[in-house]
Structures are given as C-alpha cells and as structure tokens.
Amino acid sequence: MKRNLLLWLSGLYSFTMLCLFIYYIALGQTSHWTVALGGAIVSALPLLFLKADHLPFSSFLIVGYYILLLSTIGLGTLARWYYHYSWWDTSLHVYGGFFTVFLAAALYDWLLQGTAQAKRMRWVRRSYVLAISVAITVIWEVYEFLGDLTITHTMQRGGNKDTMEDVIAGVCGALVALCFEWRARRN
C-alpha cells in the first residue's frame, strides 16, 4: 500500500514537474525551469527507500512530503504564492519544521530498529529529532541564500529579518511537533 502510494505520488508529481520544465524552457524562463527540474528531482528522492525491506515512512509522511513539495515548489514558487501572500513563506517554515520532526523520528526508528538503545534512551531520540529538524531549517536557509546569489535573487526578500523569521518559524513548528510526538508515544 505505502509503496504504491509513494510510486503514484512520485510519478504524478515528477511528470507534472517535467512537463512544466519543458514548458518553461520553451518560454525561456530560466528561474522557473530550474525550479521545475529541481521539483522533479526531489520528488524522486523517496524512491531510494524502495529497495529497503521495510519502507520507513508511514502513509501520513509520504502524503505530507508531497504536500510540502506542492506547497513550496508548485504553489509557492511557480504559482508565485510567495509574492502574493506574505504569510505563505512563514507558514511553510512552520509546516516544514513540523514535518521534519516526524521524518527524523521515522528515520531514527528505522535505523535503530530492534536495538536496545532505541527503547532505552528516549531523551537521545528527542534530542536527535529536534537537532535534525533545526539542521534542516538552517540548511534550507543556506539554500535560499545560495539561490539568491546564483539564480533568482528573490528567495530572501527580507534579508536577515526573513532568515531569522524562517528559522524561528521552523524551530517553533519542530517544537510543536515534538510535543505531539511525545504525547502520542506516551499514550
């Protein structure tokens, strides 16, 4: 079921992004065709886990990943929602922080499945999950900075203020998700 969902969503999203890639190349819009090509590539990344005996992601995470891609690449950049809605960027950073907690938790559980450490040291797990989420938030901001230097010049419209708001939003989303995840594991 999860494998089929992953294949279907990845195929649909990749196909859409590749069509947009061709469309934007024909129009000569460099900043858009590079985004569409990147969208096709990141859409295929979860397929690397199909070789694993057990797919570490729940259906919730798989759908959440493609919602994140659609929101950031499809709606945010290509449909220009980042420009039309001032709240869009911050909302996605909150969602991204929230999402990465569950992603990091799934990867942690998958990597340490069946080991005694996985059950014994819950505080290590929480620290790891929060650290991964914060690291992904920071890496995303580096990506925005480098994107502005090389391709678009529009990713960090607010400069340092935008960067700090995005990092704070991502960390807040991660903390909220960590609380949800902690309560769910307690019950």
TrEMBL record:
The keyword Transmembrane helix applies. This is Membrane-spanning protein. Signal peptide: none annotated. It comes from the Bacteria. The keyword Zinc-finger does not apply. Keywords: Membrane, Transmembrane, Transmembrane helix. The chain crosses the membrane at residues 5-26, 32-50, 62-82, 94-111, 123-143, 163-182. InterPro entries: YjdF-like.
